[in-house]
Amino acid sequence: MNLTNALFAASALVSVAATAATADTITIATVNNGDMVRMQGYTDDFTAKTGHEVEWVTLEENVLRQRVTTDITAKGGQFDIMTIGMYETPIWGANGWLVPLDDLSEDYDADDILPAMAAGLSHDGTLYAAPFYGESSMIMYRTDLMEKAGLEMPKAPTWEFIREAAAAMDDDANDINGICLRGKAGWGEGGAIITVTANSFGARWFDEDWTPQFDQPEWKEALTFFTNLMNDYGPAGYATNGFNENLSLFQQGKCGMWIDATVAASFVTNPDDSTVADKVGFALAPNHEGVEKRANWLWAWALAIPAGTQNEAAAKQFIEWATSKDYIELVAAKEGWANVPPGARTSLYENPNYQEVPFAQTTLDSILAADPNNPTVEPVPYVGVQFVAIPEFAGLASQVSQEFSAVYAGQQSVDEALEKAQAIAMEEMEAAGYR
Predict the structure, then answer these.
(1) Residue 112 gets which letter from DSSP?
(2) What DSSP state is assigned to residue 341?
(3) Cα-atom radius of gyration of the chain, to the nearest Å?
(4) pLDDT tens digits, 397-415
(5) Assigned CATH class of 137-297+378-431
(6) Region 155-171: what's the mean pLDDT?
(7) Predicted confidence (pLDDT) per residue in 283-328, tens digit
(8) Is-contact 250 140, C-beta < 8 A?
(9) What number of helices (H) and strands (E) belong to the chain?
(10) Strand partners, 82
(11) Cα→Cα distances 185→81, 121, 142, 354, 405, Å
(12) Could you give the residue range(s) of every CATH 3.40.190.10 domain in the chain?
């Protein structure tokens, strides 16, 4: 071996040793949604670029929330990165439980994050979680069944039209449900859709004095409409269906319509997974006739670093990789622009390639239609569209959603559920000192 080759070999060994010495293994808790599962498939790209290894803990939505909340409040230290959302981030950031993301690299371009997403993942102007994807809610519907029914979906329909269309598309003989909606208990599962439905009927969780409002007629009208709609034209057992269950039903051709997260659009139009991929249309979430507010929510599944992690630098590297413009380009190159994580970056919606995706504009319009400061018709003392941004909400809303799911399952009446919800909320707000 000559001197040049010897020096090259030696320097290569030093480089490998240095990488090995600085490489970490980070543990990430995430939700079992399609985009997150897709991200895990690209982890080798991150490891190749940084040397860091990744261990994944992938959980169903309700379980994820329980696990990460327990871990961070108890300072358990199980995770270096947590997948959380717009509800947890500002509260946990204010408590000092999260590492601020105010020093991300210039190349990362934090200013490119959609303002609605950045605001919802910040506290006092400091970003505490980076959005992997952002979403609102919208209608996904079978264009062939709508045409067969002799109807045309408006760009911005009412709930009354949705019921008419569900009745026309419902086909028991062919195992087609007119509509599929979440009924599963959990504040972020069935609780999300019934809350935005209530918003669109003019209902609210609390008045300006933090008095619960479940004893008001708007809530009764909304819950009665939702329950009757699903009992008449929804799938059997809808009381236990969440996002993933309804996604599967729609992909199998068993739903005429589905109102849910805008992020689902890439999955229902993917011919590898969906039997109806070429027969899907999109429209804004509905409003109740005469009420201005639509059933739009606003959410981001985001990556955050719990304070006290021993791998903060590696965790920040992962967050920069996973929520970057380069990651979007990586997915687009491998799987097409329709499959990139949506709703997080302004530049994505300015990209001519993405503008050709059939659901891109409706997704953006839906996100822009959601107003966390004015989620319903009457003034409220809280921020949040499908949630109330107070620490007590997660526990309170989980209990309330259980009562609603019991209605869907035929175990109690609408009046009984609302009476219980009012009592639960009143007790919680008095105990917490809001009233």
Answers:
(1) G
(2) P
(3) 23
(4) 999 999 999 999 999 999 9
(5) alpha beta
(6) 98
(7) 999 999 999 999 999 999 999 999 999 999 999 999 999 999 999 9
(8) yes
(9) 19, 10
(10) 29, 304
(11) 26, 25, 27, 35, 6
(12) 10-135+298-355, 137-297+378-431
Give the residue carrying structure tokens 């909606």.
181
Q: In what order do the strands lie in the sheet with 137-142?
A: 257-261, 137-142, 280-284
Interior/surface letters 315-334, b for 16+ CB within 10 angstroms, e for the rest: bbbbbbbbbbeebbeebbee
| DSSP state letter for 401 | H
Q: Helix crossing, 34-41 with 43-50: angle to 10°?
A: 40
259 touches 138 (CB < 8 A): yes
Residue in the block written with tokens 């719990």 = 306
Residues 365, 284 contacting (CB under 8 angstroms)? yes
- pLDDT per residue over 210-235, tens digit each? 999 999 999 999 999 999 999 999 99
CB–CB of 359/265 below 8 Å? yes
CA 342 from centre of chain: 11
CB atoms inside a 10 Å sphere around CB 106: 6
Tokens of 235: 């799938």
Burial of 74 (0-12, 13-18, 19+ CB in 10 A): exposed
307 within 8 A of 95, measured Cβ to Cβ: no
CA-based nearest residue to 34, from 171, 160, 132, 152: 132
Give Cβ neighbours of residue 402 (< 8 Å, ≥ 6 apart): 185
Q: Which of 421, 408, 179 shows the shortest CA–CA distance to 295?
A: 179
For 10-135+298-355, CATH number out of 3.20.20.60, 3.40.190.10, 2.40.50.100, 3.40.50.1240 equals 3.40.190.10
Question: Which residue in the block uniquely carries the two structure tokens 């007629």?
Answer: 217
Q: Do 430 and 124 meet the contact criterion of CB atoms below 8 Å apart? A: no
Count of residues in the chain: 435
Whether the CB-CB separation of 180 and 258 falls below 8 Å is answered with: yes
Q: Which two tokens stand for residue 56?
A: 């994944």
Q: What is the pLDDT of residue 313?
A: 96
Q: For residue 276, which of 292, 289, 264 has the smallest C-alpha distance?
A: 264
User: What confidence score (pLDDT) does residue 12 get?
Assistant: 39
Of the candidates 385, 277, 303, the one whose C-alpha atom is nearest the C-alpha of residue 83 is 303
Tell me the one-letter amino acid at 41.
Answer: G
As a whole number of angstroms, the distance between CA 335 and CA 223 comes to 40
